[in-house]
Design brief:
By secondary structure, the chain is α+β, with helices and mostly antiparallel strands. The protein folds into two domains: 254 residues, Gamma-glutamyltranspeptidase, large (L) subunit, C-terminal domain (Serum Albumin, Chain A, Domain 1, Orthogonal Bundle), CATH 1.10.246; 228 residues, no CATH class. The chain contains 19 helices and 19 strands. Strand 17 and strand 18 form a beta hairpin. Helix 5 packs antiparallel against helix 8. It starts with 12 loop residues before the first helix and ends with a strand. The structure holds 6-diazenyl-5-OXO-L-norleucine (DON).
Length: 573
């Protein structure tokens, strides 16, 4: 699962060389240059793909609001960002209306009725390799279509028909792929052929190249069904039939009844404070909001500004906080409809003060004695996040996922989209890590109809009752720590949005007991100091693909697309 360094990071290779060179020559270390992201007076959108951003901007310019734009963007990403923006997965939305009211929608996938606790174990109780990760059995009931339609029904203003049409056109007439996308398709060629057969249309004799046109005509039909029949166009009729047939073909579990019964859930967001800011985020079944608020409570006990950005002291402290918070995550968090999740306890400042009281700034704590799994590295970015602020002042923060790169790799024949492999987000056996190295137990065990625990952390931050930040990213278990760092970069280190997003990220998560550091500029003395404190350091290619927005002090909006880590693109007006 460890991925080779992608050519896509070519534009950063000189920095990588610098990073390596700096290991032996500390004096030649050069920090990242400072940069201001795209600016807007009234509105801003940041997504994983320029075409999706432009569709959203057009919707806003034509008088639509953030929820209208979210619908247009979500379906556009299903076409132009199929590896993650797909309709075969699920996700979460956190929003803040211009009057300050907030809400959250959970459209996480659910375990099919025929699923069972030990479905990925063999007769001796051992995990069957890859069964929860690749192929039909790894897919759970998709929630994205229900979610985006429900969100739009409640808060949108423009007709579905008008908003979805640009995505249908892109699917039908095609779009040109980027360099990153060509590489991704080439990289997955064998996996596509293995799961979908050698005649699968994305498997070509010649490698894909930037500028090639990609068409998803079957997906255009599915989107047309949704346009004409709404929710029923996906969860009933021909598309539901195609999904059920695909499942039967490959031994998957999703049935037409599972699809009919799927429903998104409105949830109350979790919120907390951080140095005079209010942080609003996703509650369980995401672990993201709770873990983020715990981490911020811990960080607030220290003078992070004085400790400095990406210094050994700050990284050490973050690691110690993360060790404790991710341990809580493994034991206490799961789907609140199936397991009593102690959210209030985890967010109680007294609890966290006590929990963090064993942290020493002089010495590393060892992660507990749970055996580390055979996870090589955290996988790449198969989830996607987008952030919107509309001219009326509404903000929407949405993260959706297929889980892995193109999900289960199962392409629903006739319907034109990939299905998720999200069942791997359950704890398939207590203590056995999933593909992100995350362990879990009872709270996150498989049960029919249950939602698997997530790390997705769509987040909104207010200052003095006004909107300040819209944040989120893919990255599996690194999502929580990426959002944590972006908030600290702005609040503690005074960075603008683009700088906060560009900054080198580090990550740790209790188990495995190590610190991942992006192969981007970082003072090599910091690494040496961390090693002296006892930390094991591992380099890691880019973590996350953030799409964030900052409301600056003068009220202008600064986009923070992660364009140095992917094709992210922000535009405002
Ligand atoms: O919901 C989750 O936490 C994961 N399925 C997210 C996966 C992800 O971000 C993939 N990118 N690395």
């Amino acid at each position: 699962m460890k991925k080779k360094l992608h050519l896509r990071y070519a534009k950063y290779s000189f920095l990588l060389l610098l990073f390596v060179a700096c290991q032996s020559q500390p004096t030649s270390y050069q920090p990242l240059p400072s940069e201001v992201g795209p600016l807007g007076e009234k509105a801003m959108i940041s997504t994983a793909h320029p075409l999706a951003t432009k569709i959203g901007v057009d919707i806003l310019k034509n008088g639509g609001n953030a929820f209208d734009a979210a619908l247009g963007i979500k379906f556009a990403l299903a076409v132009v960002y199929p590896r993650a923006g797909n309709i075969g997965g699920g996700g979460f939305a956190v929003y803040r209306m211009n009057d300050g009211t907030t809400g959250a929608l959970d459209f996480r996938e659910t375990a099919p009725e025929a699923s069972s606790r030990d479905m990925y174990l063999d007769e001796e109780g051992n995990v069957i390799d890859d069964l929860s990760i690749v192929g039909h059995k790894s897919a759970a009931v998709p929630g994205s279509v229900d979610g985006i339609l429900r969100l739009h029904e409640k808060h949108g203003t423009k007709p579905l028909r008008e908003l979805i049409q640009p995505a249908i056109n892109l699917a039908y007439f095609g779009f040109t792929i980027t360099q990153n996308q060509a590489e991704e398709l080439n990289e997955k060629r064998d996996a596509f052929a293995e799961v979908n057969g050698p005649d699968f249309f994305l498997v070509k004799d010649q490698p894909w190249r930037a500028g090639d046109t990609l068409k998803f005509t079957e997906l255009a039909s599915t989107l047309t069904q949704i346009r004409d029949r709404g929710r029923e166009g996906f969860y009933g009729g021909i598309v539901a039939d195609q999904i059920a047939k695909e499942m039967q073909r490959g031994g998957g579990l999703i049935t037409e009844d599972d699809l009919k019964n799927y429903t998104s859930k409105w949830r109350a967001p979790v919120s907390g404070s951080y140095r005079g800011h209010t942080v609003i985020s996703m509650p369980p079944p995401s672990s993201g909001g709770v873990a983020l608020l715990q981490l911020l409570q811990g960080a607030e006990l220290y003078n992070i500004k004085e400790m400095g950005h990406n210094t050994a002291e700050t990284i050490h402290l973050k690691t110690e906080l993360e060790r404790r918070v991710y341990a809580d995550r493994a034991t206490h968090l799961g789907d609140p409809d199936f397991y009593e999740v102690p959210v209030d306890m985890l967010l109680d400042p007294d609890y966290n003060k006590e929990r963090f009281s064993s942290i020493s700034l002089k010495k590393k704590t060892d992660s507990q004695d749970i055996k580390e799994g055979s996870v090589e590295n955290v996988e790449s970015v198969e989830t996607t996040h987008f952030s919107i602020i509309d001219p009326m002042g509404n903000a929407v923060s949405i993260t959706t996922t297929l889980n892995s790169f193109f999900g289960s790799k199962v392409y629903v024949r006739g319907a034109g989209f990939f299905l998720n492999n999200i069942m791997d987000d359950f704890s398939i056996k207590p203590g056995v890590p999933n593909q992100f190295g995350l362990v879990g137990g009872e709270a996150n065990a498989i049960e029919p109809g249950k939602r698997m625990l997530s790390s997705m952390t769509p987040t909104i931050v207010e200052k003095d009752g006004e909107l300040k930040l819209v944040l989120g990213t893919p990255g599996g278990s690194t999502i929580i720590t990426s959002v944590f760092q972006a908030i600290m970069n702005v609040v503690d280190h005074g960075m603008g949005m683009q700088d906060a997003v560009n900054a080198t990220r580090v990550h740790s998560q209790w188990l495995p007991d190590r610190i991942l550091i992006e192969e981007r500029p970082l003072d090599p003395r910091v690494v040496r100091k961390l090693e002296k404190l006892g930390h094991k350091i591992e380099p890691r290619e880019a973590m996350g693909r953030m799409n964030c927005i900052l409301v600056r002090q003068d009220g202008t909006l600064e986009g923070g697309p992660d364009y140095t880590r992917g094709d992210s693109y922000a535009e405002g007006f």
